[in-house]
Write a structure and sequence with these properties.
The protein is of the alpha/beta class and about 200 residues long. The chain is built from 6 helices and 7 strands; from the N terminus they run ααββαββαβααββ. The radius of gyration is 16 Å and the shape is globular. About 40% of the residues are buried. This is Methyltransferase type 11.
Length: about 200
């Protein structure tokens, strides 16, 4: 990871996905309990929203700056937070060992999102759920074409972020079952931020 991705992008993300996204974070984290694995932990902005029923949080985060920015938020929670790795494509967790997985605006940046979702499926206990909010391909053909055009330049600016991934299809292809999914344009435009928000479960 280069200087820009490690030092600059986490700070930009902390601001861009800060206060305006708090309501979304509260919705996505509702219902989490027990042992939770979060991929793309970032600066820990989900921590204040995690329910009291969470007993342990395992964290995957590649950026050192993100982990440093998270320190005050980690200190404020009552459950242990354990950094376990930096690659969502290879989770250092045993099969069927976590109750839930949390992903907020993360699958867009992982190089191989399909592999990351296979790993999520592997580590979830039967009946466990993945709570997610992501952005991806717009249902508007015109907007989707622009997403395809802008994607290479956007990825270089935004830490490898992809504008045009079909999140709901990727989740289902992993073997998870979508229990609910809402889609809507983020910030009033479907071009840079078409949102996918929902819960998927591993068959019991």
């Amino acid at each position: 990871m280069g200087f820009y991705d490690d030092q600059v992008v986490p700070r930009l993300t902390d601001v861009a996905l800060g206060r305006p996204m708090e309501e979304i974070r509260a919705r996505v984290t509702a219902g989490l309990a027990g042992e939770v694995l979060e991929i793309g932990f970032g600066s820990g902005r989900n921590l204040p929203h995690l329910p009291a029923a969470v007993t342990r949080l395992l964290v995957v985060e590649p950026a050192a700056v993100g982990r440093a920015l998270a320190a005050p938020r980690i200190a404020a929670v009552s459950f242990p937070v354990e950094f376990i790795g930096d690659d969502g494509q290879a989770l250092p967790v045993a099969d069927a060992s976590v109750d839930h997985v949390l992903s907020t605006w993360t699958l867009c940046t992982i190089p191989d999102a399909e592999q990351a979702l296979r790993e999520i499926y592997r580590v979830l206990r039967p009946g466990g759920t993945m709570h997610f909010t992501e952005h991806g391909r717009s249902p508007s053909p015109r907007a989707a074409r622009w997403q395809n055009r802008l994607n290479p330049a956007w990825g270089r600016f935004a830490g490898g972020c992809h504008l045009n991934r079909q999140i709901d299809e990727l989740v289902e292809q992993s073997g998870l079952t979508l229990k609910s999914v809402q889609t809507y344009p983020m910030g009033g435009t479907a071009l840079l931020g078409f949102a996918y928000e929902g819960i998927a479960s591993k068959p019991g």
